[in-house]
Design brief:
145 residues; alpha+beta; nine-stranded antiparallel sheet
């Protein structure tokens, strides 16, 4: 048996979710059409790779990377570019190091798991480049370290 108040609450929550989707948020950049599906409406992203083992996350306003060597860096996103099938987020850490994550709509096979993801990823930390795969949160590639 369902109580009317719970049904009303569910309808109100659904409407609030629909209404909130149209709001402009400076931390949610407008993505090129080719990237909307693989990245979702928010542009949130998980990425990771091997040799060294690393993981990265893009969240509204924040870019974070960790490696198996104990490196953990975060940077507020100060630059975004998205064109065609490529999106790039960048910023500087508190220590001034440049941190950039680039995602491209191109299938990527993760050698460690054998899984295929919709995006290839490249992370630049200063002059070092790490390559791997990327997907939306909830579709694999969560923190790997």
């Amino acid at each position: 048996m369902t109580f009317p108040i719970y049904r009303s609450l569910a309808v109100a929550m659904a409407l609030a979710t629909v209404c909130a989707c149209g709001r402009h948020d400076a931390h949610r950049p407008k993505l090129p059409a080719a990237l909307v599906g693989p990245l979702g409406a928010t542009g949130a992203l998980n990425a990771g790779g091997e040799a060294p083992l690393w993981s990265a996350q893009v969240r509204p306003g924040q870019l974070h990377i960790e490696t198996d060597a104990g490196v953990s860096l975060s940077a507020p996103i100060s630059a975004f570019s998205g064109k065609g099938k490529i999106a790039q987020w960048g910023g500087k850490t508190a220590a001034g190091a440049a941190l950039t994550l680039t995602a491209e709509v191109k299938a990527c096979r993760d050698e460690a798991t054998g899984m295929t993801y919709p995006l290839t990823a490249k992370v630049s930390v200063g002059d070092r480049i790490l390559a791997g795969c990327a997907a939306r949160p909830g579709n694999g590639l969560g923190p790997r370290t």
